[in-house]
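TICKET: design request
STATUS: open
ATTACHED STRUCTURE:
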């Protein structure tokens, strides 16, 4: 089953994305892949250069605006630095794919009708990996890393392959542990992967996502912001949900 149909159940709206989504590694001329390559290392972190990694990079570049693509790669780099500091080895290729796909669900073309964005990205990554012959256990670790990356302390207590993405996104979004990274290393990361208006753009993406699927983001990291910014959306509160349950007490 072609990747785009397995993910969406129908044609992708963006034709440029569809072309990449339907392709396999054999479909890429070597010049097509090399034209979009990242530096071999960013901030002292080696960027995976396997065929799978290159294909995932190309896919993400075509699917995302620059601010989101750069955030995705920075999340990999910051996550790798966090695990380096903790002395924990991890599957760099799988972690790179997880980072590239983790926000894919914020893009309307890749969004399901009802699931939260983390699950849409996790499902897309798993499909991408399984269609390329990646072992089930590796694909499932990528799925779990993406599905849990915004769940605070939960993923960082799990195995390094899962924790890595949560560490990286926490640094890039909220600056967590950024002070632990030497300034020259930080400068190299931001030079290679500029923020490109990230703060404003990601907040706008969350609002658009909430308007498309308001209940998908209930009680998640974006919930309080969405409630404050979209008073026209009628969203239940925790006490309303509990008191509405069909029990006497």
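STATUS: resolved
RESOLUTION: sequence designed for all positions
ATTACHED SEQUENCE:
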């Amino acid at each position: 089953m072609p990747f785009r149909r397995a993910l969406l159940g129908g044609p992708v709206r963006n034709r440029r994305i569809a072309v990449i989504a339907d392709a396999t590694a054999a479909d890429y001329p070597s010049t097509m892949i090399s034209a979009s390559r990242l530096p071999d290392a960013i901030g002292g972190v080696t960027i995976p250069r396997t065929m799978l990694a290159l294909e995932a990079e190309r896919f993400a570049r075509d699917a995302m605006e620059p601010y989101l693509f750069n955030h995705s790669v920075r999340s990999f780099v910051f996550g790798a630095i966090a695990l380096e500091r903790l002395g924990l080895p991890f599957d760099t290729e799988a972690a790179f794919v997880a980072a590239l796909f983790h926000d894919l669900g914020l893009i309307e073309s890749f969004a399901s009708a009802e699931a939260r964005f983390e699950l849409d990205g996790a499902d897309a990554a798993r499909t991408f990996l399984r269609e390329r012959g990646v072992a089930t256990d590796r694909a499932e670790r990528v799925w779990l890393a993406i599905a849990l990356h915004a769940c605070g302390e939960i993923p960082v207590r799990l195995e390094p392959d899962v924790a890595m993405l949560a560490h990286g996104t926490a640094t890039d979004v909220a600056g967590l542990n950024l002070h632990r990274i030497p300034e020259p290393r930080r400068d190299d990361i931001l030079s290679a992967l500029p923020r490109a208006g990230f703060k404003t753009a990601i907040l706008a993406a969350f609002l658009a996502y909430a308007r498309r699927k308001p209940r998908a983001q209930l009680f998640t990291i974006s919930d309080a912001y969405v409630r404050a910014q979209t008073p026209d959306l009628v969203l239940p509160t925790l006490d309303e949900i509990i008191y509405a349950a069909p029990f006497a007490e």
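CLOSING REMARK: The longest strand covers residues 41-42. The radius of gyration is 18 Å.
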